[in-house]
Write a structure and sequence with these properties.
Blueprint (H helix, E strand, L loop, with lengths): L12 H29 L4 H24 L12 E3 L4 H30 L3 H5 L4 H24 L11 H20 L3 H4 L1 H15 L6 H5 L17 H28 L6 H20 L5 E3 L2 H9 L4 H16 L1 H8 L3 H24 L5 H19 L9 H7 L2 H15 L5
Antiparallel strand pairs: 1-2
Helix pairs in contact: 1-2, 1-3, 1-13, 2-11, 2-13, 3-10, 3-11, 5-10, 5-15, 5-16, 5-18, 6-8, 6-15, 8-15, 10-17, 10-18, 12-15, 13-14, 16-18
Length: 427
């Protein structure tokens, strides 16, 4: 694809800030959601949940900056946003119910060695991802995210009051149309910042309609200092085993994200680069444990922004990392993003996530069309989407299999990898 800004290019400062804010809006809600979900289920006090959330933003920002800019043998040096991962939610809650937050953090710290050690073998793992597998995984990443955007578009979760109300659908549709129009017919920076402008206009419309609650901004503290070891640490064996499995799953998911990024940024992803990215992610998750929050992973939605806007500058996303650090130190900034109504995010999210599907289709279009490749794509996407749309399929499986297969991206990736290895005709 034609890039508006390439990976190594540095846009002017004001333009960079505008484009970085676009990535921030796409990621911040998910970064905050993970510690809120874990803290809510464990019935933590408001103060403890604030510690989890602030640490999540702060550490996500630091690791995002290092991933983009690089530091020695750390960082993939591509425009990737890092944040707290939903892959760890289930296992974190299970550990927390028995051993408290200290058990979660201690287990995550020890288990991060799985990702750190695994990073040194990524050159071999990279060889397992030829274009037919890569295209399947990237397509699946986009397809797995679309249901999330649909729920945002409708205003929440199925069954909640106001779900799919006419007002929510109109707001989401308005933002979607604005994003598409600006992206396709806008020029220069207007096209590059289409998602941000669409969300801003949608947010303003919601304010005028009286649909925005500013109470969270008024309640948010102005300054929040980090609280390392706030919850203490313990190291239950069962927790370490569960977290280790979750880290293995995250390696597969992040590999898919990095492969997608390399495609949309027109950058060759070598085994060495992949190793630097996974090592940074593993050490970043260790840092998250020390600073009292849950582990991190790469964010797929930001790959869609790069594909849609053509802005592949790693220096822009490094600024997003700086903004996340500020949001962690000054929670009132994060509160301004959190109050954006879900249909606004959904309107932009549908376009962004669909763009990831488009990237996967482009990769698949370059592969040979034959029965073998068709079977790999069909079974990989079919298995991944089966788990995504009907997670109840896993309800009677052993707990360890639930952890591994809970993500449709992981399930589909494993199926595509396996079929590529066993079907005859592999080059």
């Amino acid at each position: 694809m034609t890039l508006f800004y390439k990976v190594e290019e540095k846009p002017p400062v004001l333009v960079s800030l505008l484009l970085a804010a676009q990535h921030l809006l796409a990621a911040l809600g998910a970064i905050i959601a993970v510690p809120l979900v874990v803290g809510g289920v464990l019935e933590l006090s408001t103060q403890d949940k604030v510690v989890l959330v602030n640490a999540a933003m702060l550490v996500s920002g630091v690791v995002t900056f290092i991933q983009c800019k690089g530091a020695g043998s750390l960082g993939i040096r591509l425009p990737t946003v890092m944040g707290t991962s939903f892959t760890f939610v289930g296992v974190s809650i299970a550990i927390g119910m028995e051993h408290g937050v200290g058990g979660i953090l201690g287990s995550a710290l020890v288990s991060s060695l799985v990702m750190i050690i695994g990073s040194f073998y990524m050159a071999s793992i990279r060889k397992l991802f030829p274009p037919i597998v890569t295209g399947t995984v990237v397509t699946l990443i986009g397809l797995s995210l679309i249901p999330v955007a649909v729920d945002w578009f409708a205003g929440g979760q199925v069954g909640e009051p106001g779900y799919a109300s006419i007002s929510n659908l109109l707001i989401g549709f308005f933002v979607l149309v604005v994003v598409m129009v600006l992206s396709q017919w806008g020029k220069g920076i207007i096209s590059a910042s289409a998602a941000l402008l669409g969300m801003v206009l949608g947010f303003v419309a919601c304010i005028l309609l009286g649909l925005v609650d500013f109470q969270p901004v008024q309640d948010a503290p102005w300054v929040a200092l980090p609280h390392p070891f706030h919850f203490g640490m313990s190291f239950p064996v069962s927790g370490i085993i569960g977290m280790s499995i979750a880290y293995l799953v995250t390696i597969i998911e992040s590999t898919g994200d990095f492969l997608a990024l390399s495609e949309v940024t027109n950058t060759k992803l070598t085994g060495k680069k992949l190793s630097r990215g996974i090592l940074c992610e593993g050490l970043g998750s260790s840092l998250a444990s020390l600073f009292s929050t849950t582990p991190l992973s790469s964010f797929s939605q930001n790959v869609g922004i790069v594909n849609m806007t053509g802005v592949a500058s790693r220096h822009v996303v490094a600024l997003t990392g700086g903004m996340l650090v500020l949001a962690g130190l000054f929670p009132v900034i994060a509160a301004l993003v959190v109050i954006i109504p879900l249909p606004v995010l959904g309107g932009a999210g549908l376009v962004i996530f669909a763009m990831i599907v488009s990237s996967g289709v482009k990769i698949l279009a370059k592969t040979e069309h034959n029965k073998r490749n068709s079977a790999i794509v069909a079974m990989g996407i079919g298995a991944g989407m089966a788990v995504t749309v009907r997670p109840e399929l896993l309800s009677n499986l052993p707990e360890i299999m639930k952890v591994v297969l809970a993500s449709g991206i992981t399930t589909g990736s494993l199926v595509a990898l396996f079929m590529n290895l066993v079907l005859p005709g592999r080059k």
